[in-house]
Design brief:
With 209 residues, the protein is an all-alpha fold. 77% of the residues lie in helices and 0% in strands.
């Protein structure tokens, strides 16, 4: 065993360190993800706390209560598991790191905002380590990161692709695009409840004019 370890080139030790870091980050997210998918996992408060007025509960316990609701808890759990799996495989590790940073940043922000200061600082120290490991993984994959970066900016040009007037009209068309999402629902209600739709249109017309 010792002979085999000595046969490994020294430059491979750093690669092994990166592999260990990937496993650590993956294990953390997968374990937390499964915890959220189990009945007795993360989030939720006791029956005694449920009977306590909200003003008497800490922000942390209120957050823990709110996050116990579906589909929030399960979605976060699934995303953490998927992120962990992505980190385990070399082909998907870069995507896994970006997923990890996005999700972990949100978790850390909530911890800082709602947890007691002492507990929150403990999480801050842990997450700083995790983010450093993410940076080291990306640096280790810098050649592939260069390829991704070049692919993103290869066709970038400052030349305008449309007349300036069309750029000025973007907010107007964006409003029409937002309103268009309600047209199918409006048509449905117009067919099923024409009187209510007509009254609603009249009310909007009177408010506008």
């Amino acid at each position: 065993m010792i002979t085999k370890l000595r046969a490994i080139p020294k430059e491979r030790y750093y690669e092994y360190f990166i592999l260990v870091a990937r496993f650590l980050l993956a294990f953390i997210f997968i374990s937390y993800g499964f915890g959220k998918l189990t009945e007795d996992g993360q989030f939720g408060i006791s029956s005694k706390e449920l009977a306590t007025p909200i003003k008497d509960l800490s922000l942390f316990r209120v957050m823990w209560y709110l996050f116990d609701h579906e589909p929030f808890k399960s979605v976060v759990g699934v995303l953490q598991i998927v992120t962990g799996i992505l980190l385990l495989f070399h082909r998907t590790v870069i995507l896994g790191v970006f997923f990890f940073i996005s999700i972990a940043s949100n978790i850390l922000l909530m911890d800082i905002s709602f947890m007691p200061e002492g507990l929150a600082m403990g999480f801050v120290k842990r997450f700083i380590l995790y983010f450093i490991l993410c940076g080291l993984i990306l640096w280790h994959e810098r050649e592939r990161m260069k390829i991704i970066w070049k692919a993103m900016i290869k066709d970038f040009s400052m030349k305008l692709r449309f007349p300036i007037i069309l750029y000025g009209m973007i907010p107007v068309f964006a409003i029409f695009l937002e309103v268009s999402a309600g047209i199918p629902q409006l048509v449905y209600h117009f067919i099923t409840e024409p009187d209510k739709v007509f009254d609603f249109v009249l009310q909007v017309f009177h408010k506008l004019f």
